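Bench notes, afternoon.
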Amino acid sequence: MISIINLSGRNVFRNSGQLSSDKLEAKIKSISLSPGLYLVSLSTENESRVQRIAVVFK
């Protein structure tokens, strides 16, 4: 099971895990916060803002 936690206070992912209509392109930094927990940075197509999410693998 994969849980996606938004750290920016905005809904990046729908319940199905699909990207929202913001057309975000993932630039994965793969920073391991703990076993099974990774910090991922997402930027929009024009890179005007960056979304941060944590991905938890269970």
